[in-house]
Amino acid sequence: MNRETLLNEVGKVAESAGRAILAIYGEPERWAVQQKVDDSPLTAADLAAHRLIVEELHRLTPTIPVLSEESEDHSGRRDWSRLWVVDPLDGTREFVARTNDFTVNIALVENGEAILGVMHAPVYGMTYLAARGLGAWRQDGQRRERIGTTVTMSPPRLLLSRHHRSGAEDAVLAAVKARFGDCSVLQVGSAFKMCRVAEGAADFYPRFGKTMEWDTAAGQILLEEAGGLLVDHDGRPLRYNERDTLVNPPFLVVGERARLPEWLSVLSAA
Questions:
Q1: Cα separation, 196 vs 203, whole angstroms
Q2: Which of 130, 138, 162, 244 would give a disulfide with 222, using CB separation of 3.0 to 4.6 Å?
Q3: Containing structural domain, residue 233
Q4: Signal peptide: which range, if any (predicted)?
Q5: pLDDT tens track for 24-80
Q6: What percentage of the chain has pLDDT greater than the value 70?
Q7: Bind-site residues for Mg(2+)
Q8: What is the pLDDT of residues 203-242, one digit of tens each?
Q9: Residue 192 above 90 pLDDT?
């Protein structure tokens, strides 16, 4: 199966998972929330999407293992040079709070790099797809169009988390205003923030709070193919399945690549 065909098939898998999530989203009586060991929430929607995605990926690519947020066992993953990295429902807090900003994230990682990714926003009916060398795309029903980041607006458009904001983000906000005079602040939940930058609706997103590799892998290839970057605070692209931990370092998302040094300078001033 060539990469373009695989991308299209994975898009269908993500959309199927989205339908399973929406079926539960429309039935509040099924929203029982459990707390996982790391104190993050878990719902029936997470588990339904996880089971569907794992089954379909095994059908499509039986020799490629799946690393999912809801997998019970991650042992042995460091031996995998090629793997799927999946968050069946990114933004469970957004799901429970009914903000609509949650996504299905599926990425193919090869030798530490995300090379194919799909992000589906079930409530909005939008699917974002990207693969190395094939560009970044947004699909709304039967209509698919290529997307790309934009030059930084004046004032710049800054994305902040709705549920994970900290003093560090407030310090960055102050530093952005000091550098540019002003900025517009958009509050968006989950990995959907990366979609917004990739499609040119925002310029910059700093993240200091805890995230995992399945939160960013699909978004990273989407951003890179759209013309943007997802990098750590030293300006290095994130890499996957190469460390003992699956916790990401703090990172930033930049729409206009040429402005990366300026945004790193803003971070250092915060």
A1: 9
A2: 130
A3: 157-269
A4: none
A5: 998 866 656 665 655 566 788 999 999 999 999 999 999 999 999 988 777 889 999
A6: 94
A7: 69, 87, 89-90, 215
A8: 999 999 899 999 999 999 999 999 999 999 999 999 999 9
A9: yes
What are the binding residues for substrate? 69, 89-92, 215
Written as six digits, the tokens of 83 are: 């793997």
Q: What residue type is 55 in one-letter code?
A: E
CA separation for the pair 270, 264 (Å, rounded): 10
Instruction: Report CA dihedral (143, 148, 154, 159) to the nearest 10 degrees.
Output: 80
Note whether residue 152 is domain-resident: no
Domain stop point among 146, 177, 212: 146
The model scores a pTM over 0.70: yes
Q: In whole angstroms, what is the distance from residue 204 CA to residue 196 CA?
A: 10
131 and 181, same domain (yes or no): no
User: CATH number for the domain including 23?
Assistant: 3.30.540.10
Whether residues 90 and 192 share a domain: the answer is no
* Token pair recorded at residue 195: 């979609």
Instruction: Check if the beta carbon of residue 60 is closer than 8 Å to that of residue 71.
Output: no
Q: CB count, 10 Å around CB of 75?
A: 6
The total number of structural domains in the chain stands at: 2
Give the pLDDT confidence score for residue 165 in this predicted structure.
66
